[in-house]
Design goal:
168 residues; mainly alpha; globular
Length: 168
C-alpha cells in the first residue's frame, strides 16, 4: 500500500497546481464575460469580446452542435468551442476516467477542499449510506439521459439550425 500511496502522493502537488491554473482560467473567462454583458446591457458597444470559453458552460449547445456535426459533417461556426471542449471531455473520460473532473474541473478542486475541511472538523471522511449514495450518483445520469433523449431523438433538424442561429 505504501508504494501506491507514494506514487499517488507524488502527483498531488502537480494536480493541485493544474486545478488552480484551470480555476484561474475559469475566473478570467467569467470576469471577461461579466464585463461583456455589463457593457451590452448598458447600451455601450463592448470593447471586450465575448470569450469563446463561455461555451464550455453550455453543455446543451455542445450536444446540439454534436448532433449538427453528425447530420451535416461540419462544425457550426456559432458554438464551435463548446463542441470541441465537449469532445475533449468525452475522450478524456474514456481514456483516464475521472481525469477531467479530478485535474481540470474547478468543482473537483472545491470538492477536495470541502472534503479536507470536513475531515479536519470531524476527524473522519464523510461517507453517505448506500441507500442515499446510489440514487444521488444516478441523478447525473438521469439528467444527461434527459438531454440526450430530447436533443438526439426528439429535436428535429430544423430546430437544430434554429437553436444554433438563435440570438441567445
Amino acid at each position: 500500500m505504501t508504494g501506491k500511496r507514494s506514487f499517488i502522493g507524488s502527483f498531488l502537488p502537480t494536480r493541485r497546481w493544474c486545478q488552480i491554473i484551470f480555476l484561474a482560467i475559469v475566473i478570467a473567462i467569467g470576469i471577461q464575460f461579466a464585463l461583456f454583458v455589463f457593457q451590452r446591457e448598458s447600451g455601450v458597444l463592448p470593447d471586450v469580446d465575448r470569450p469563446p470559453g463561455v461555451e464550455a458552460f453550455l453543455p446543451i449547445s455542445a450536444l446540439v452542435s454534436l448532433k449538427h456535426l453528425i447530420y451535416t459533417k461540419t462544425i457550426n461556426d456559432i458554438h464551435p468551442s463548446g463542441l470541441v471542449i465537449f469532445l475533449i471531455i468525452c475522450v478524456t473520460a474514456l481514456v483516464v476516467k475521472k481525469g477531467f473532473c479530478s485535474w481540470v474541473c474547478p468543482f473537483g478542486l472545491f470538492s477536495d477542499i470541502l472534503a479536507k475541511i470536513h475531515s479536519r472538523l470531524f476527524f473522519r471522511s464523510l461517507k453517505l449510506p448506500q441507500w442515499a449514495d446510489i440514487p444521488l450518483r444516478g441523478l447525473k445520469y438521469l439528467l444527461a439521459g434527459f438531454f440526450i433523449y430530447y436533443i438526439f431523438f426528439k429535436m428535429p433538424a430544423a430546430a437544430i439550425e434554429q437553436f444554433i442561429h438563435s440570438p441567445i
